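U., I forgot to send this yesterday:
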Amino acid sequence: MKVKKQVEELEAALKRAVADYQNLERRVNDQQQAFVKFANAVLIEKLLSIMDDLDRANEHIKDGGLKLIMERFKEMLKSEGVETIATAGQEFNPLLMECVEMVAGEKNRVVKTTAEGYTLNDKVLRPAKVLVGKGPTSHKATRGEEDK
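Result:
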């Protein structure tokens, strides 16, 4: 009887050790995958600043070749898991956007995007910088504030 009990205890200890090892193996694997997914984040952020420069240049130059290069650049970023945060006409979302100014417009709606925002594998890499509507304002309230 004593030997049987010892065997059962050793069997239970072995099962716990195997389960602990499998959990550790899974956790290490998940950490490695997360590291690989986000290892390029710093480089991608630097590339995004170049994309911003290209966007600004395109506003002034309006060149077909430049536009083609920008599209290829965006496709490459997308293939690496980078997505543009949709902002046009959207309700302001502080998790994805940064309000740089409140302006006349529909309350809590994005009126204009001043800098594109991006996610990397569904994690915010850079929030979008937006102008947000403050809603209708009456002339009396505005005039009263000016008098103060």
